[in-house]
Amino acid sequence: MIKGRCLCGEVSFSVDGPLGRSAACHCSQCRKQSGHYWASSSAEESDIAITGQVKWYEASADAKRGFCPNCGSFLFWKAHDEDAVSFSLGALDEPTGVKLECHIFVADKGDYYVIDDDLPQSEMS
């Protein structure tokens, strides 16, 4: 089981189940909401227990983003048509045992940084 929480601790979560891939998302929405690219993994919604009140923002017709209404930590991303929920790797309590596996939406990455590791890159998801 892995655990995580927002900056102020009002929202916490635990994941008890298999994790999806761990990716760094470089899309403009993730960059604008997080301040840089957003590193996340995912799990089935039924495997994630959330304590505290999450504020959901409808970021597009396809997905919503969850954050702590007190400190503003961006914690979750959920596509409307999927059962999985992505969660912030930066919010996890260490040690996580999780490693990044890939970069996604690199066609939309910021011009102020270079991706300089050997992980696979995808123009889209």
Automatic annotation (TrEMBL):
SUPFAM superfamilies: Mss4-like. PROSITE patterns: CENP_V_GFA. Keywords: Lyase, Metal-binding, Zinc. One of its GO terms (molecular function) is carbon-sulfur lyase activity. The keyword Zinc applies. It comes from the Bacteria. Pfam families: GFA (PF04828). Residues 2-114 form the CENP-V/GFA domain. Signal peptide: none annotated. Belongs to the Gfa family. PANTHER family: CENP-V_GFA DOMAIN-CONTAINING PROTEIN-RELATED, GFA DOMAIN-CONTAINING PROTEIN. This is Glutathione-dependent formaldehyde-activating enzyme. It comes from Roseovarius aestuarii. The lineage of its organism: Bacteria, Pseudomonadati, Pseudomonadota, Alphaproteobacteria, Rhodobacterales.
